Amino acid sequence: MSSNQMSSNQTPQITLDVRQGGVEHRIPYSNKKNYAIITDLNKCFGCAGCQMSCKEWNTSGMFGPLPDLNPYGDLDVMFWLRVMYVEVGNYPQTKVYNIPINCFHCMDAPCVPVCPVGATFKRVEDGIVLVDYTECIGTKYCIYACPYGNRFFDYIEGVTKKCTHCFDRIYDPTLPPEERIPACIHGCMVQARIWADRLDPTDPGNILFIDKGGFVLGPETGANPASGYLPWHSKYAADNDVELLSESEYYDVWTSNGVVILGAQGNNSTYTEQNQSSSSSSNSSS
Ligand code: SF4
Ligand code: SF4
Ligand code: SF4
Fold it and tell me: Which of 34, 150, 260 is the best mutation target for the ligand 2 pocket, counting ligand atoms within 8 Å of the beta carbon and taking the most?
């Protein structure tokens, strides 16, 4: 799989073959597994520990570094995982949904076939979608093809980067076995992030996803995301809390609020915020 080597100190450094086991560039894919992450919205309280764990790991992992061009200016920094905070309902009956978003390693990933040089691909062994930085020529086609804004351009290296499902953790033989999981799962203090193989009906994460009515964001995109969410249930909250949103309502809220501009990643960063709602005069016509 790889060649292991030691850096000058004694920090073990690994180099993994990203094409190990074969890769695919065209839909339909025929991968054997499709790794994914399921987030339980009942548990997630929006601490962003997963976001920071991702940043921390990947800035020093084999797929890093992540560029921070002007971190204290316009916040043009790169996060492969972004926790979105979406407030829904009418005051005072509102609720904030905390929604961590990173590459969904889609089962029909549209970001892959658009690459003119085959630099991005879906792995046969596990369905992980990766970018080979040594081949990427920076066309950004894949950034525009992703309906979820989950690909980012590194202006320093001139290549596209994205969540790797922590490929370089889960296959790292130098890590203790219990740490060979994605950093964002490892870093969630309430175990709201769950690893699943969406193609294995016996996989515990997949069973949980199906049994608990799991859903994906934007099913109408056709990308068929592998990662998804367990819906928030009002039975855990006060009687007068807001109702559970339907799948399509999640998508509508998410997009119409401008929290994420789908597929509009022209730069390398989060482009979070803000409700553009009638931005001009903020007077409510008396
Ligand atoms: S670390 Fe866990 S609780 Fe915190 S935002 Fe991420 S998924 Fe939610
Ligand atoms: S979320 Fe976007 S980048 Fe990730 S596999 Fe799906 S289309 Fe591609
Ligand atoms: S799986 Fe790894 S690369 Fe992907 S969001 Fe989680 S920590 Fe980041």
Answer: 150
Q: What is the pTM of this model?
A: 0.82
pLDDT per residue as tens digits for the range 222-232 = 999 999 998 87
CATH code for the domain in which residue 62 is found:
3.30.70.20
265, part of any domain: no
Question: pLDDT tens digits for 133-161?
Answer: 999 999 999 999 999 999 999 999 999 99
Q: What is the C-alpha separation between 15 and 1, in angstroms, rounded? A: 9
Is residue 286 in some structural domain? Answer: no
Residues with C-beta less than 6 Å from any ligand 1 atom: 39, 44-50, 83, 98, 100, 187-188, 190, 192-193
Tell how far the Cα of 235 is from the centroid of ligand 2, in angstroms: 33
Per the listing, tokens 């960063």 go with 269
**How many structural domains are present in the chain?**
1
Domain contains 55: yes
